[in-house]
Amino acid sequence: MARPEVHDLPLLIAGPDRYGDGSATGVAAAAGLPEDRVRALGQLDDADLAVALDRATLFVFPSLAEGFGLPIVEAFKFGTPVIHSDDPALVEVAAGASLVVQRPAPSEDDGAYSERLAQAIGRVLDDDELRARLSVLSADRARAFSWRDSAERVWQLHADL
After folding, report:
1. Can you tell me the mean pLDDT for 49-58?
2. DSSP string, 48-111
3. Is it true that domain 57-149 has CATH number 3.40.50.2000?
């Protein structure tokens, strides 16, 4: 987020700021981000999370290992462009409706992954057409994860038995 291609975009962190002995805001400050560009929002209720995702310029989910990727689906619901790692679960959930960034190789330092994330953020910020396309794709992909659709599939499964 301190790289120039990110264009001083503010960083809003949904969820806890502290992880182990460190904090996301502490890491951001150490990277040279001004304090007013980083806000840890803490645990958000559903309504506040909806507002944050709806108003976000983009949603970045750099997680390296996930079982499903619900945060991506939540961002898709609002047509928010999404950038995430190439974790297989995230790639499967997104199904081409996002921008995927290669995770760090075992021999690679964390800085290379951060640089690829910054480049992806800059690419989306600088390309209005890409941002609009990702927005449409994400809103379309969100429809694949409706409760109604899930219920109908379960109902049909039982009917077929």
Report:
1. 96
2. HHHHHHHH-S-EEE--S--SS-HHHHHHHHTT--EEEE--HHHHHHHTTSSEEEPPPPTTS-HH
3. yes
